[in-house]
Write a structure and sequence with these properties.
By secondary structure, the chain is of the alpha/beta class. Helices cover about 45% and strands about 20% of the residues. It is built from eleven helices and nine strands. The strands form two sheets. Strands 1, 2, 3, 4, 7, 8 and 9 form a seven-stranded mixed beta sheet that branches. A two-stranded parallel sheet has the order 5-6. The longest helix is centred in the C-terminal third of the chain and has 22 residues.
């Protein structure tokens, strides 16, 4: 027979074990979130993904009554930040601002400390930001066809700028080069400002610039828009043809942004967050802010988004092969 004290000790041990287990157990989707949520932005503050993410998640935070704290963890082209999320507990309290750049990382590094498709769960798409093909008015090109004709007349003499190898402007420029069948030189810069300055100065023949910063330059006549990188025209530049209308359907490119979670995050939490993001994107105030940035809605279920991302990675690998883009490390 156990003594009374022994029984009390055993009961206490059982209770402590139970409390330890429940403390480690993730919150149910109904309860989540019960505390602040960390959202890792794998790039420096002020980039397109960061800006859009803050707009959307500020609204999500208001809806759920918990802070969504965005922490910038730049480095190695986004790899450091992404890797930290793939290693995080899959409990819904560590998330990732995801973007097209994650697909680019696959071709820019000879190896990654994670598999972006396998180690992350796509949650919700915020939307896509198209680019516009611009040139200096001094070049005299009025259409994309005129630019292509000039490039074909002087193989290897024309050039295009990018904000760096693997940047959206580089990917868009390479896709256009391949679709048009032209031989041009790629000139990578350390950032978009330097590239844009040389476009204005006529030292660069063409450049794919995100629509939002391009609009005032177009309105002032400082650059000539030749086409937008989307399948259809965009509302912010209704008079500019789409890249398909211009005659280069294989040159379409959309830089997308969204949110992802560690791969084993409970599906119920993934679905709840997806629904809250959809609700935020339907908010008139959020819509107005995103429209000013040129963000186009791309509603998808988590499964559709996961498939879209996997296809994006595969397409990027093919582009690297076709365009002879080599890893930078």
């Amino acid at each position: 027979m156990r003594s009374f004290g022994a029984k009390i000790a055993l009961s206490t041990a059982i209770l402590l074990a139970f409390l330890a287990l429940t403390a480690r157990a993730p919150a149910t989707a109904q309860d989540w979130p019960t505390r602040p949520v960390l959202v890792v932005s794998p790039y420096s503050p002020g980039n397109a993904t960061d800006i859009v993410g803050r707009i959307v998640l500020d609204q999500v935070s208001q809806q759920l009554g918990q802070p969504f704290v965005i922490e910038n963890r730049p480095g190695a082209g986004g790899v450091i930040g992404v890797a930290s999320v793939t290693r995080a507990d899959p409990d819904g309290y560590t998330l990732l601002l995801s973007s097209s750049s994650m697909a680019s990382a696959v071709i820019l590094h000879s190896s990654l400390p994670y598999d972006p498709v396998r180690d992350l769960s796509a949650v919700a798409m915020f939307g896509a930001q198209p680019s516009v093909l611009i040139t200096s008015p001094a070049k005299g090109y009025k259409t994309a066809a005129e630019l292509v004709a000039a490039a074909k007349a002087k193989p290897g003499e024309l050039n295009f700028a990018s904000a760096g190898v693997g940047a959206a402007s580089h990917i868009a420029g390479e896709k256009f080069r391949l679709a048009a069948g032209i031989k041009v030189q790629h000139v990578p810069y350390r950032g978009p400002n330097e590239a844009f300055t040389d476009v204005l100065g006529g030292r660069i023949d063409y450049y794919f610039l995100p629509i939002a910063p391009a609009i005032p330059m177009i309105a002032q006549g400082k650059v000539t828009p030749l086409a937008v990188s989307t399948p259809k025209r965009v509302a912010l530049l209704p008079d500019v043809p789409s890249i398909i209308e211009a005659g280069y359907p294989d040159a379409t490119y959309l830089f997308w942004g969204g949110i992802a979670a560690p791969a084993k995050t409970p599906r119920a939490i993934v679905n709840k967050l997806h629904d809250e993001v959809a609700k935020a994107l339907a908010n008139p105030g959020v819509q107005e802010k995103l429209q000013r940035l040129g963000v186009q809605p791309m509603p998808m279920t988590p499964d559709e988004f996961q498939k879209y991302f996997a296809n994006d990675v595969a397409a990027m690998v093919k582009l690297a092969k076709d365009a002879d883009i080599k890893p930078t490390d």
